[in-house]
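Repro:
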Amino acid sequence: MPLSRNGGAKLLLFCRLGKFFRSFVLQFSVFCVILASEMKKNELSILIPTYNGDCRQLVGELSSQAEAISGLDYEIIVADDGSPDREKVDLCRQVEQYPHCRFIDRGFNAGRAAIRNFLAQEAGKAWLLFLDCDMHIFLSTYLEQMLQQEGDVVYGGYRVRKDCAPRSCLRYRYEWACQPEHNTEQRRKQPYQHFHTSNFLVNREVMLAHPFDESFRHYGYEDVLFGRRLHEAGITINHQEIPVGFFTFEDNASFVSKTEEGLRTLYDKRDLLRGYSQMLTFVEGMRSPLLRGAIRLWHRLLGPLERRILCGTHPYLRIFKIYKLGYFLSISSAKKSQ
């Protein structure tokens, strides 16, 4: 049936409106991309959680680089997570001498996940840059490079400098040996498993929509679960080679204790971390009860000796690996018997 003159005019008007609407949506999308890009370049909250640390040098370098970037609207927020060492808290408080920088003493320990969520909520800028307080800035264009990257989440990595600690330092030997596994090429093969909180840039809306799991009260693996949550949400992690320096290490006894705490966290949260932890994958691949029992027996008999060696002046990485495996299997055995 042929259209009337009025009907044809209405159809033509409808088509033109549809074309206009599609053009408007396209232009608006481009505008949003440009706006987001500009926000990325011009709005930044630098967020540093501390616990018994001294971040003055880190904040000083970041402040210097931020001030040198023309048009950058930035802030630096340092939050102490209930450090018992009040001298370190007073040292960190001195960062307020820098422009656009404030220090928050929370007065209680909320945990590694909760303190980062708190910082994200305190932040007032569109992009958040999280850095651990014991990191060092050695790239003169570090901040500029991070701000130039694309994607909602950017991880820059970290680097250990050769001979920055004595050979007797277990943490240094461990981190130095692991460096080939953490280069950009390797990280991009498993981008969600190789994410760490030490040096990453994230869109604030993404961070607020996918916060860290605050049930992770103790040391370890909150960053691993965060990577898994991003994976499940379809959010890409852009791995780049824009490292910060990891040059300061705890003593051997402290590192062994932190490792043990991390292994306990791993066991308690194993259902959430399955597929994202090499230790879990390895242990769950050990089908033989006899083999597991033999390792537990070894740890019961020789674990104390191994620990003394690791906490001493001549630690060995092979012993460290054996000790971690035995400790984890012993946790699982003890938990099941309760």
